[in-house]
């Protein structure tokens, strides 16, 4: 537990680093652009579906306005569900810059030994992580529905699922640049990985902090990997 707090604190302290700020600016800009595009597309799709179902002025006066409002709410709800997938997919493409910035300041020897991933490798890793997130979250829906009567049950289910997924993604962002054999074991333990993912998953639920969460997570994961392997 202490290691997680230490890694997150070190990551937070480096947010003022120009290299990290550049990544943060780019990731926020790209994430917002994707969300605006998805919001517009979602609104259009929901509006057309509701219209096809008969929700229009022919049904009752003001139905068009109600349909537009319902479509907007449905689109926003959908975006909230996929926020983590989109944010992590975006940071995947900037992860190398975050890792390099942390390594340059704290672990220069590791920085010199890191290997660069190709765009194809980064894209593959990002898409694989995104697909894994969608599938696991969909698989968790039945259990969340069963626990709906508890109030907090569904939130805990999705937090546990996303903590495990995020921990794995954040670890891989760093470890893939340092493992030189396919069967090399990452020095970060499963517990450390889960706790890091849980902390980042919780931050993603907090307005404004959710923009910082992926960058903080990537930086903290860098500290965990290198502190655990003794570099």
TrEMBL record:
Keyword Protein transport attributed: no
This protein's UniProt keywords: Membrane, Transmembrane, Transmembrane helix
Source domain of life: Bacteria
InterPro entries: CysZ/EI24
Lipid bilayer topology: Multi-pass membrane protein
Localization: Membrane
Pfam families recorded: EI24 (PF07264)
KW Transmembrane helix (keyword) present: yes
Transmembrane segments: 28-46, 134-161, 199-225
Signal sequence range: none
Protein name, UniProt field: EI24 domain-containing protein
């Amino acid at each position: 537990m202490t290691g997680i707090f230490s890694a997150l604190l070190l990551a937070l302290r480096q947010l003022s680093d120009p290299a990290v700020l550049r990544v943060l600016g780019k990731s926020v800009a790209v994430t917002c652009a994707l969300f605006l595009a998805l919001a517009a597309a979602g609104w259009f799709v929901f509006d057309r579906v509701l219209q096809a179902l008969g929700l229009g002025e022919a049904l009752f006066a003001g139905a068009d306005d109600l349909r537009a409002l319902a479509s907007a709410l449905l689109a926003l709800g959908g975006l909230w569900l996929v926020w983590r997938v989109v944010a992590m997919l975006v940071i995947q493409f900037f992860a190398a810059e975050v890792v390099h910035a942390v390594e340059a300041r704290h672990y220069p020897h590791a920085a010199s030994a890191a290997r660069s991933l190709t765009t194809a490798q980064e894209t593959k890793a990002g898409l694989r992580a995104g697909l894994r997130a969608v599938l696991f979250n969909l698989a968790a829906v039945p259990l969340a529905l069963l626990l709906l009567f508890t109030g907090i049950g569904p939130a805990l289910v999705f937090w546990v699922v996303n903590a495990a997924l995020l921990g794995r993604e954040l670890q891989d962002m760093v470890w893939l640049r340092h493992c030189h054999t396919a069967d090399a074991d990452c020095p970060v333990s499963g517990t450390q990985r889960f706790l890091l993912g849980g902390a980042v998953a919780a931050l993603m639920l907090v307005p404004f902090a959710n923009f910082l969460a992926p960058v903080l997570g990537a930086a903290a994961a860098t500290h965990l990997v290198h502190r655990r392997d003794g570099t």
